[in-house]
Write a structure and sequence with these properties.
alpha/beta; 219 residues; 8 strands
Length: 219
C-alpha cells in the first residue's frame, strides 16, 4: 500500500476556533496542516496572513504546509518563513523569477513547493523540478473552498510522476481541490502522495474528522 499523507485545509475549519481545530486535526491523525493564504488580488478571496500563522504555530507540532496565493509573492516569503511555515508553496505566475524565489525560500531552511493551476502547463516549472520538494497540483481554480474536482488534471499528475521517476527526483506530488472519497483513489493511482482536503474532512460522516482522514488514506 502506498504511503498517503493527508494535509487538511483549514479553509473549511471554524475560523473562530482555529487553534482548537488544528489540535483536533492533529489528534485525528492529520500528517500536516494546509494553510491557504489568499490576497484578494492573485485570487478572488482574502484569508489569513503571517500574524495568524505565527499564533497558530503554537497549537501544533505538525508541518505547516503554507500555500501562498499572493502576488507579487517574493517580498512576502520571509514573513511567512518567520511566522512558522515549514513548506512554502508559490505559483510561478506570482513571481518575476521563479528560480530566485525558490532559492529565497531555501535560504530560510524551508521546504519549497510550486503550484500549478488547472490551466498551467507542467513545462512552465519543468526546469526547476529538481530544485523543489513539492509540486501542488490544483484540481480546482484557486480562490474558494468547496469546488468540484476538475478531472483533466489527472493527466498532469501522471506527467509529474513520469518525470519524477525518469529523472529520479524526490518531490512530493500534492493535489488540492474537490478531493473526496470517490476521486482520491484515481488521484493516488496517477501518482499523488499528499491529498489536501477541506470540505470532505470537516463535513462528511457528520464531521467525524478522524474517520474521514482514515478513509482518505485507505485508497
Amino acid at each position: 500500500m502506498k504511503k498517503i499523507q493527508i494535509s487538511p485545509s483549514i479553509l473549511s475549519a471554524d475560523f473562530s476556533q482555529l487553534g482548537n481545530e488544528i489540535k483536533r486535526l492533529e489528534d485525528a491523525g492529520a500528517d500536516m496542516i494546509h494553510v491557504d493564504v489568499m490576497d484578494g488580488h492573485f485570487v478572488p478571496n482574502l484569508t489569513i496572513g503571517p500574524p495568524v500563522i505565527k499564533t497558530l504555530r503554537k497549537n501544533s507540532k505538525l508541518t505547516f504546509d503554507v500555500h501562498l496565493m499572493i502576488a507579487p509573492v517574493h517580498k512576502y516569503i520571509k514573513d511567512f518563513a518567520d511566522a512558522g511555515a515549514d513548506i512554502i508553496t508559490i505559483h510561478p505566475e506570482a513571481t518575476d523569477n521563479l528560480k530566485e524565489s525558490i532559492n529565497h525560500i531555501k535560504s530560510f531552511k524551508k521546504k519549497v513547493g510550486v503550484s500549478l493551476n488547472p490551466d498551467t502547463n507542467v513545462s512552465i516549472i519543468e526546469k526547476e523540478l529538481e530544485n523543489v520538494d513539492l509540486v501542488l497540483v490544483m484540481s480546482v481554480h484557486p480562490g474558494f473552498g468547496g469546488q468540484k474536482f476538475i478531472p483533466n488534471v489527472i493527466e498532469k499528475i501522471k506527467i509529474l510522476k513520469k518525470i519524477k521517476d525518469e529523472k529520479n527526483y524526490s518531490y512530493d506530488i500534492e493535489v488540492d481541490g474537490g478531493i473526496n472519497f470517490s476521486n482520491s483513489k484515481e488521484v493516488v493511482n496517477a501518482g499523488a502522495n499528499i491529498l489536501v482536503s477541506g470540505t470532505t474532512i470537516f463535513r462528511e460522516n457528520n464531521g467525524n474528522i478522524k474517520k474521514n482522514i482514515e478513509t482518505l488514506k485507505e485508497v
